[in-house]
Amino acid sequence: MVAALLFIVLPLVLIVVAWRMKPLVPRDGRPGDAVGGSLAAGGMFGGHGLEPDARSVREDTEAPRFDFSDVKARE
User: What confidence tier does 55 reach under pLDDT thresholds 50, 70, 90?
Assistant: First the structure.
């Protein structure tokens, strides 16, 4: 009986309570912040006042190419 309470009833009750709880930080209405992360971070660390980017830009991740043709060989 105790095992059923611990492994079946208690997890189900906790899941239901978690779905019914009000979030601590309301969702941000801006399009770049889906779950209000910047609003929560702004409350902890101070906001920067900037709007999120309208579109994301791919980061340049190509490997740099070096030209060592002018370097002398070691003697």
Answer: confident
